[in-house]
Amino acid sequence: MTAEDSRNSRQLRLAANVISGYENGTIPFQRLVDDLDILGNEIDASEDWRRSFVEHWWTLEEVRSVSLDQGLQSGLNPDFRAIADEAIASLKVLIQDRIGTETPS
Question: pLDDT digits over 60-105, tens only?
Fold first, then answer.
């Protein structure tokens, strides 16, 4: 495994940990969106993978933006939570699949 592969694996695992932290309540939604934005830009992957990642991340960004516009500083309403949960589930699959391809044979 090259240094770049190792770095990529680390970024993927960090993204998975950020999602886990959000799901168990230790990371707020705002930080989830920000951290995934940063980490997503650092992950080396195919154009298709990146496009899928950005699509699901963008859904989270839109949920955050609309929530803030509506004055929901500390939480998501049930409709927004359902949309965010669906995007998060898709991101988890993308990340886990990519982690699986990063594992050395």
Answer: 999 999 888 887 666 688 889 999 999 999 999 999 999 887 655 4
Give the Cα separation of 98 and 94 in Å (integer): 6
What six digits make up the tokens of 57? Answer: 């991340």
Q: How many angstroms separate the CA atoms of 63 and 13, rounded?
A: 24
Output the CA torsion sign for 34, 93, 46, 14.
positive
- CA distances (Å), 82 to each of 56, 64, 76, 86, in order? 13, 13, 9, 6
For residue 62, what is the DSSP state? Answer: H
For the stretch 13-52, pLDDT in tens is: 999 999 999 999 999 999 999 999 999 999 989 999 999 9
Q: Which conformational region is residue 3 in: left (phi greater than 0), alpha (psi within -120 to 50 degrees), or beta? A: alpha
